Each structure stands twice: as C-alpha cells, then as structure tokens.
C-alpha cells in the first residue's frame, strides 16, 4: 500500500513479501529507507495463490499495520503528513502475479 505520496519518488510503502514478511519503507527522492524492518508474522499467507487483506491506519505520525485482521506492527515517522494513497507492486519476478481487489480509503475513527 502506497500512502502519503506527495510527488514522484516521495511516499511511504507498507509491503509484504512472498515469504511472509512485512515492512514499512519511506521513499525520499526515490531512495528507500526502512521505518520498520522486514519481519515475519504468522498472519501473512505465503506461497503460490496466497491471498492477504492489508490495512494501514495512519493518524498523524503514527502508523498501525494489519494483515488479515491481525495487527502485525506499528511505526512512527514525521516526514510526510499528507498525500495520496494507492496500491503498487515492485516485484520484478516475471513469474509473479498480483491482484488488488476492494481497495478502500477511509477517514480513521
């Protein structure tokens, strides 16, 4: 999930990997730095045909991350306070396929 995208190369990214890890990356001028290091979580489905429901709650500088309804972690960063949200795939493996469905952006309660 790409969030607080302010301009080309400037945004945050909540990511999961094919081997069941999640991480939170900040991109500044296209250069990524880890805000929350990649770590495994049993909530993440992995392997061929795996399906995962991702959610980020971003309030101010606080971020809370969920996979399949389970909180997997939190992070804090003040670099970007606003911007657009979307989805993306940076997997360069030509054998992978990613499908996004039911993407929703909502005001946190």
Please explain how this structure is put together:
This protein has strands at residues 2-7, 10-16, 21-28, 31-40, 54-59, 62-67, 70-76, 84-86. By secondary structure, it is an all-beta fold. The strands form 2 sheets. It has a 5-stranded antiparallel β-sheet, with no helix packed on it. A 3-stranded antiparallel β-sheet has the order 5-6-7, with no helix packed on it. It is globular.
Strand order in the largest sheet: 4-3-2-1-8
Based on secondary structure, the structural category is: mainly beta
Please summarize the sheet with the most strands: 5 strands, antiparallel
What is the arithmetic mean of pLDDT?
Answer: 90
**Helix-strand pattern, N to C?**
EEEEEEEE
Provide key terms for this protein.
about 110 residues; mainly beta; three-stranded antiparallel beta sheet; 8 strands; globular
């Amino acid at each position: 999930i790409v969030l607080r995208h302010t301009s080309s190369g400037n945004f945050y990214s909540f990511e999961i990997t094919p081997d069941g890890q999640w991480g939170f990356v900040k991109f500044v001028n296209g250069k990524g730095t880890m805000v929350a290091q990649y770590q495994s979580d049993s909530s993440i489905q992995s392997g061929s045909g795996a399906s995962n429901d991702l959610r980020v709650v971003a309030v101010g500088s606080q971020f809370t991350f969920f996979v399949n309804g389970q909180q997997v972690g939190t992070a804090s960063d003040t670099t970007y306070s606003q911007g657009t949200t979307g989805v993306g795939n940076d997997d360069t493996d030509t054998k992978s396929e990613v499908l996004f469905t039911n993407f929703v952006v909502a005001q946190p309660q």
